[in-house]
Amino acid sequence: MSTVHALPLLEQSERTSTSYSEMETRESWEWESVAGGEVWSTFEKGLLSYLALDLGTQGHVVAFLRAPEFGNVLWPFWSTERPGQVYRGGFPASSTSLVETNESVLRDLREQGVRVHHPGSVLDYLTQYPGLVDVLPKAVAAARAHFPEAQLVMDLYQDPEIEDRYLVLYVRLKAYDDSVLERLEQAESAFIHLLEGTEGWLQLTTDFRVAEDKDAL
Amino acid sequence: MSRRYANPPVVEAICEFHLPPETPWDLTVPGLFYERVRANFPHRERRMVQDFEFIQTPQGLEQRIHTGERLLLFSHDRKRLIQLGMRLLVINVLKPYPGWDEFKQLIQQAWEALKAVVEIQRVTRMALRYINRVELPSSTASLETYFAFYPHIGHQLPSTITSFIMGVEFAFTEGRDRCHVHMAQAADDKRNIMLNLNYYLAQPGAVSLPEVLSWMEEAHTRVEDVFEGCITDALRALFEETGQ
Fold first, then answer.
1. A148 and A139 in contact (C-beta within 8 Å)?
2. Which residues, numbered 137 to 196 in chain A, qualify as contacts with chain B under a Cβ-Cβ cut-off of 8 Å?
3. Interface residue of B95, B165, B194 to substitute, partner A, most A CBs within 10 Å
4. Cα–Cα distance between B43 and B81 in angstroms, integer?
5. How far is the C-alpha of A161 from the C-alpha of A92, rounded, in Å?
6. Calpha distance B36→A94 (Å, rounded)
7. In this predicted model, what pLDDT tens digit does every residue of A84-136 receive, in sequence order?
8. Are A183 and A149 in contact, with CB atoms under 8 Å apart?
9. What H or E segment, with its residue span, contains residue B35?
10. Disulfide: which of A216, B52, B61, B82 matches A20 by Cβ 3.0-4.6 Å?
11. Distance from CA of B243 to the nearest CA of A (A)
């Protein structure tokens, strides 16, 4: 992480509260300069000040909040890795934009090592069925828990003969044994109840293809 | 007069109304609202959302996390939706963008439906947002060829860029309104550029209730102007301009 050379002084506001969700949509802050791999600016009239910092080696920008009352701890609340979402410790507030939310989901999947095939089609499906956004992280976590050695691949299945399509999370292994189907059922049971009452579908399965060396353990 | 394109880049347009804390709101509001729009938005879904809030108390700064429910109402084809949260109304239209006239009608319908079930005194914030996905011919396409709004990279900086993000905010109407323009690479394909425009009311309550919809009209005109100011004729050619 780049070094923080100076923090802006906190401006005491007349307001008594400020919410992350308001900041998210208000976007009343600006990038002031980009120089030497560091970007920073201050939040306007907020109870808190913020600092936007370029994490040069990781190739993205993260904005932090600072509160003197909390010993000047810096909280990350926004990142170019998750544009349109405000978060703290990976705990996202909800954007009003479906497209921005799904872009963020796609980045999250990739950060977690999930390969996404036909990302444009996956994004379109998530935009049509946004309720799946809440299910996806739990499905990936369940797959990881039961198949820690697997390569995970996300794709959109489209039946060539009938109007049927849904998201598929494939588990790919270097070798398959008799326990695979049972483990799939166990993993699925961790999230399938979340699909009740949700439009769209997410299927955890395997295509029995051998995991490629790059990602598989 | 606005320009028209056969292949417009809009993937989502969003209109937001934020109401002040004193606006009466209870558990009956979503149901009453739904009854008024269900003919065009019959599909109901719910999502849990989290908001964070810092509150100054005599004991110091308190951090609060609110978990609330947001109602999502979809049209028959799921290309339009209304989101209703606590003192929040959002109208979204997805690609293919139906055009301002139709979007404006949806905004008006939703706004009137909310006014019919909630006593609204004022609006703290409004926003009209356009999210554009621009598909460039190649990942090495020069941004300055297609955009009049792009990051300038000095000659002493490395030439290999793995990602970028840029944002500028413009003031309108003596600071009452602002337009935030945001540019970044898309998550699905680095050839795709996300160009997001967010025109919003920066001064809470500065627009009276009867002027809300005319403010939206004004916002749309400004957003169009800013958008056209961000692009070049080369990009207009990619969008296949069909006239004005």
1. no
2. none
3. B165
4. 9
5. 39
6. 25
7. 443 333 333 457 899 988 888 888 888 788 999 999 899 999 999 988 988 89
8. no
9. helix B29-37
10. B52
11. 28
Q: What is the pLDDT of residues A172-209, one digit of tens each?
A: 999 999 999 999 999 999 999 989 888 899 999 999 99
* DSSP designation for B217: H
Cβ distance B120 to B114 under 8 Å?
Answer: yes
Provide φ and ψ at B92, rounded to 5°: -120, 140
Beta-carbon separation of A93 and B51 below 8 A? yes
DSSP letter string, B86-138: TTEEEEEEESSP--HHHHHHHHHHHHHHHHHHS-----SEEEEEEEEEEE-SS
Nearest residue to B123 (alpha-carbon basis) of B208, B202, B51: B208
Q: Which of B93, B41, B100 is nearest to B72 (CA)?
A: B41
Count of positions (residues) in chain B = 244
The residue type of B231 is I
Could you please report the per-residue DSSP string of chain A? -------PPPPPPS-SEEEHHHHHHH--------BTTB-----TT-SSEEEEEEEGGGTEEEEEEEEGGGTTEEEEEEETTSTT-BEETTEEPPPS-HHHHHHHHHHHHHHTT-EESSHHHHHHHHHH-TTHHHHHHHHHHHHHHH-TTPEEEEEEEE-SSSS-EEEEEEEEBSS--TTHHHHHHHHHHTTGGGGTT-SS-EEEE---PBPPTTT--
Q: Report how far apart the first and last C-alpha atoms of chain A are (Å, whole number).
A: 29
Residue A69 touches chain B, beta carbons under 8 Å: yes
pTM to 2 decimal places: 0.76
Residues of A within 8 A of B196 (CB-CB) are 84, 100
Cα dist. A201→A126, A190, B82 in Å?
Answer: 10, 15, 22
What's chain A's length in residues? 217
| A27 and B180 Cβ atoms separated by less than 8 Å | yes
What secondary structure letter does DSSP report for B231?
B
Adjacent-strand bridge partners of A78: A63, A86
B222 close to A (CB below 8 A): no
Is B86 in CB contact (< 8 Å) with chain A? no
Euclidean distance between CA atoms A139 and B34, whole angstroms: 31
Rounded CA-CA distance A93/A79 in Å is 13
| ipTM, 2 dp | 0.88
Q: Is B165 on the interface with A (CB under 8 A)?
A: yes
Residue A62 has phi, psi (to 5 degrees) of -125, 140
